[in-house]
Amino acid sequence: MKKITLTMLMFLLSHTLSMAQDPKYTLVYGEEVELKKPIVIDPSDKRPIKVILDEQLKNTDIGYKITAKHILLFKKKPTPATIKTNYQFHGYVMDSKSHESLIGANVYCPQLSTGCTTNAYGYFSLPLPEGEYDVTISYMGYEPEHAKIKLSSNTFKNVMLNESLKLPEVIVESDRPDTGSRSTRMSASTISPQQIMATPAVLGEADVLKSLHLLPGVQQGMSGTNSMSVRGGSTDQNLYLLDGVMLYNVNHFLGLASTFIPEAVKHIDFYSASFPAKYGGRLSSVVDVRTKDGDMQNYHGLFSIGLLSAHMAFEGPIKKDRTSFFVSARRSYAGWLMNIMAKQNDEELKSLDLYFYDINAKLTHKFGNNDRVYIGFYQGRDGVYQKYEWEESYYNSSSCTESSLKFGNTLLNARWNHIFSPSVFGNIMVGYNSYRMKLESECYDKSLSLGSTHFGTDYNSGVKDLTAQIDLDHHSFSNHHIKFGGNYTLHKFKPESQTNVYVATDGKKSLADKQVTAAEKSDGHEFCIYIDDDMNLGHQWQLNAGIRATMFAVPSKVYPTIEPRLSVCRPIGGGFRAKASYSLMHQYAHMLSNSPFAMPSDLWVPINDKIKPISSNLWAAGVTYDRWKGIELQLEAYWKEMNNLIEYRDGAGYYGSSIGWADKVSAGSGRSYGIEFMARKNIGRVTGSFSYTLSKSTRKHSDGNVNNGERYPFELDHTHTINILGMFKLSKKIDLNASWYFATGGYTTIATQQTRYILPQLNDDSSTIFNYEFDSYFPDYYSRASSKNQEYTSDTYYYFGKRNNYKMKPSHRLDLSVNFHFKRKRGERIWNISLMNAYNNKNQDVIYTELVKNTNDENICRINGMTLLTILPSVSYTYKF
Amino acid sequence: MKHLLHILAFTFAAFVAASCEYEIGEVDESSKHQLIINALMTAQGQDNYVELHLTGTTKTTLVRNAQVKIFINGSLAEEATSDTCIYKIKSLFASGDKVRIEASDGQHSASAETTVPETVTVVSVDSADVRFGNENYTRYFIKIKDPSSLKETKYYRLSVVREQHKVNGAYYHDNELYYVSYSTDIDNKYSYYSDIALSEGMSKKSKDYENMDAIELVEEVKNVFGLFRSSYFSNGEYTLNIDLKEWWGHDVKGDAEDIHFKIRSIPESEYYYLQAVSVFQNYEEGVMLTPAPIVPSNVKGGTGIFSVSAMAETTISRGKKLEIGDKIW
User: Fold this and answer.
1) What ipTM, to 2 d.p.?
2) Residue A839 touches partner B, C-beta closer than 8 Å
């Protein structure tokens, strides 16, 4: 708005009056200023000019500003409080070609300095008094639409925006009330599909989650994986929503790729503080992914092939402007490649299939202006399959093993959007999500002489959610945007169950047996209601106050929680805005994991009567600046306290099932704090971002079961982190993208000394506890070890001491990608060439120690490192039609 | 290629190019030595002892001539010293005793405390013959009872000592045995795969399942110390279910076997100590997937384990040893 005001001043008409009191002032005002009576100044009046002007302009809509030589008169902007709300200007903002709704588009009335944005379904509702207005509707990457509206009643309008053929010239990101720099919220970002596609990724596989790694406060896990920690939180503290339904597993291939097909993604909102009250159930971040609805006008699609997977997407109308569909799919072909690369005689490798796939489908139907229905489906799977047969002529036998491991999500949702009144928009959703891991193995041995045996096992684990939800947006008041709603989710946790079958026969008699073991199934009932109000308090104060009340019931206990959420924002002059926020969050399910990778064996378990919900108190404060055209700056500091964090206690979690898992874990606390800076350039030939994070994150388990109760650093605690993303539009045909990542080392646990361990007798002599021979140097041990009745022996092995006792060296990496666009009459071809870790830096991903001899034949304890992601080129081809 | 998850992991590594390994440096030699107290004692045991060592960067060092003090329920019960690193402990303990150890070699000192658990009661031992493949096994069903497990999770360790007595030489005169000599072998092996508590919920009915590829989701960590906990008990009772391979000596006259089933109620600290030690072998084999096995210690000011268990023992004898005067026919 300030830009517009300044523009108007460029065309000011000036008028000069001679003033008796102080002739050095010139009175300047524009045509919008209508003086109903002349300003009269009595020469005998000795009062200050300010007092005189206040008196003369009292009860007018004219304001003034005194400079060295001028008195500038201007028309006062009506404050929001003075606007009388009579009617709603409401509707949907859509892409003019596809009629795809646009999320987060700005609808702005410059005359009244008021506006709103479209919600997650592209709907807006702007309360305005009766009259005629120019309204500007804008969205990043689209030509702004200027509409003249005459409001004498509630007015519905679908606004169609044309995709911009030029580089974007309008700054809209900063205006977004949810995530922009001018919004009340902080630590919130919107990621566009363009940014996802532009972020260089492993094997050219554009990835939603890897684009989030570039944001401040987000720490990457193992190189090349999607694992991420947000503001010192654990990897299971991120809430992933796909069209509003929670996903438990978002990884393929141990985290190499995420489950979100980039072509299906329309919009992503990311929050790491000042969480809207509608979100809950996780502590550290919200990743809200919305998928495309499908083109209501034309059929089109794409096909893409890369080193890791092939993608396709197809969309179009079933009935023009009424019903549309969107289908996308992706499948990897790692198994085929391995089969091809396998040596001729490597039957075992040749018998292997390894894959992942994702399918997204969505059906959208408009029943009119007031009602829309969406039905969405997603399924993603990782799979490993192997069938291996061999024969042994000596026994005249044949054997076969057949194993398959499958895990992934199936998601189904149905949503109904209804405009209850011009000022009340409703979204009603039912959703179903199932995460399941299934391992099946069978082994047959058939021998003419020895009979036959058949072993089989079937292992299952997973969690299923059934959700019903209602969200309402209320826009009646110009100073309040109220969101409220509630939901109920039935969580059905099935941590583990295993069925074993054994059948043996020697030709005369047979033995058959079946055994079923299962960990406790558990149902969790989660009820929640929330209300959230985005308020203009006047005097430029903006406040977002929300509250979320949740009740989580497990069979033995009910946990009620109240979560206040508060964000406040105020301009402090010079283009700066100060912000502060507070959020209380709770989490009711934990992921039991003992690996740095996203493993299918990771188990989600609910809280119970022993293990309380995890909670966090997050305070944040910061400033934003957006006075420079196309550039946004933000600086934030945060402090987060986490309670009841679950970790496997030292010595536990290495084997066995999740039965009685509560015994194996320790509840502790965590603390993280830091300062984050981000600069983002959104327009021009060169766009991109720079982020820097200074942070600290620690854990402490006062019960003494982890690290002897001493505070220790979190493994992804990188003190300094820098991310730079540059997107260069070299020409219409070529764009170059580069990202550079730097982080000081995280922490890992290594052996720092040798110690002695006392051991009872082993019940399995095929096992060796230590990798080297029994230490016979000491006669005491030698004699005792020789004694058959000796209950205990002891030996020397590595001493791991304290948790996360080794700080790794800083890591850095440059990733590059170039896209070549070739437009044809019938479509567009895109070649992508990527180079990960372009200068082949050996980042430390795995560290371990080893006892070896040095050149002087002396024992030394050597530290070894392992780099997983070395220089890695890739190429992919995309055809859009 | 044994496990599907390893396939996944290796494929991951292959896809993120050829991962490379390299040397970073050496562990700092100047790190402080710590006193190691190691003692896994039995409440009424006659052979209890404490071992003392010092940690080191590349090796451990014996601690001789140190002072070891044992306190029972706050009172000094015993002081011990030794010119080896083995310190014999003569004190006897009872369930519920709070036992504290203090050890010092003048330069280093450390202490630890433990509570002696309740002893389980062995209610019955039954057996059945089972056959897997070509192997004959005897399955033993050992029913135990521990009312204290109704209040909180309790921890146990099962060890089996098979004393196998083989006739070395036997001399008969007039159809009557007048001399016999025996040799005795000790065997501690047993198969726990059919037991849900000993396999921590991952029972497989038979040890033969081991032969099946990919049956484990992750690399299996073997319960080599026979640890289990009361989470699997019902009303404070549980029937252990283990398989012992048939000893060929059962078919030989005069050969005999004494099978001792020792069920120790152990403190929680011993349970997690031994569980972590069990994973060393897996750590060696797969550094990338297996987390560093941090072994919990209950020793303050040093490291190691100090534990007193309460043992219940029952013995099954099979076969009959020859005795002087036995008739050959």
Assistant:
1) 0.91
2) no
A531 close to A483: Cβ distance less than 8 angstroms = yes
Please give the Cα distance from A98 to A487 (Å, whole number).
Answer: 32
Alpha carbon of A647: minimum distance to chain B alpha carbons (Å): 13
Q: Assess A220–B contact: CB distance below 8 Å, yes or no.
A: no
Q: What is the extent of the structural domain holding B204?
A: 121-268+311-318
Reported as half-sphere exposure (CB side, CA atoms, 13 A), residue A531 has a value of: 5
Per-residue pLDDT at A492? 92
The tokens describing A599, both together, are 């493993």
> CATH 2.60.40.1120: does it fit domain A80-164?
yes
Interface touch B24/A864, C-beta < 8 Å: yes
pLDDT, tens only, A543-584 = 999 999 999 999 889 999 999 999 999 988 888 999 999 999
* B79 and B167 co-located in one domain: no
Residues A153, A154, A158, A164, CA torsion sign: positive
Contact A256 B12 (CB under 8 A): yes
| B100 alpha carbon, distance to own chain's centre | 22
What is the average pLDDT value for chain B, to the nearest integer?
A: 85
> Cα–Cα distance between B279 and A798 in angstroms, integer?
12
For residues A849-856, average pLDDT: 83
Query: A112 touching B, CB under 8 A?
Result: no
Of A334, A502, A845, Cβ closest to residue B15 = A334
Boundary of a domain, candidates B81, B116, B151:
B116
- Summarize pLDDT for A395-420 with one digit per residue, the tens: 677 778 788 888 899 999 999 999 99
Please check the confidence at residue B37 and state whether its pLDDT lies above 80.
yes
**In this complex, do A657 and B201 lie within 8 Å of one another by their Cβ atoms?**
yes
Q: Rounded to an integer, what distance in angstroms lies between the CA atom of residue A342 and that of residue B259?
A: 51
Whether the predicted pLDDT of A656 surpasses 80:
no
CB-based contact A649 B160, cutoff 8 Å: no
Indicate the pLDDT class of residue A114, thresholds 50, 70 and 90.
Answer: confident
**pLDDT tier for residue A777 given thresholds of 50, 70 and 90:** very low
Fold of A188-291: Ferric Hydroxamate Uptake Protein; Chain A, domain 1 (2.170.130)
Report the C-alpha gap between A560 and A562 in whole angstroms. 7
**What is the full DSSP assignment across A34-100?**
--SS-----TT--S-HHHHHHHHTTTSSEEEEE-SSEEEEEEPPPPGGGPPP-EEEEEEEEETTT--
Of B64, B91, B116, the residue that ends a domain is B116
Tokens of A577: 């805005």
Contact A214, A184 (CB under 8 A): no
Cβ–Cβ gap A455/B223 under 8 Å: no
What average pLDDT score do residues A686-708 get?
A: 93
Q: Which residues does chain B have within 8 Å of residue A254's beta carbon, measured at their own beta carbons?
A: 8-9, 12
Closest CA to B304 of B313, B295, B312: B295
The tally of domains found in chain B comes to 2
Residue B111 touches partner A, C-beta closer than 8 Å: no
Interface check B229 vs A, CB under 8 A: yes
CA A696 to chain B, closest CA, distance in angstroms equals 23
Give CA separation, A137 vs A281, A473, A718, B285, in Å. Answer: 35, 20, 42, 61
For the purposes of burial, counting CB atoms within 10 Å of the CB of B311, is it exposed (0-12), middle (13-18) or buried (19 or more)?
middle
Query: Please, which residues 50-109 of chain B have a Cβ atom closer than 8 Å to chain A?
Result: 51, 53, 55-60, 62, 84-86
Model confidence at B230: pLDDT above 90? yes
Report yes or no: A337 at the B interface, CB cutoff 8 Å: no
What residue spans define the domains of chain A?
2-75, 80-164, 188-291, 753-799
Q: Among all residues of chain B, which has the CA nearest to that of A657?
A: B201
Which one, of A594, A591, A593, A590, lies nearest residue A613 by Cα?
A590
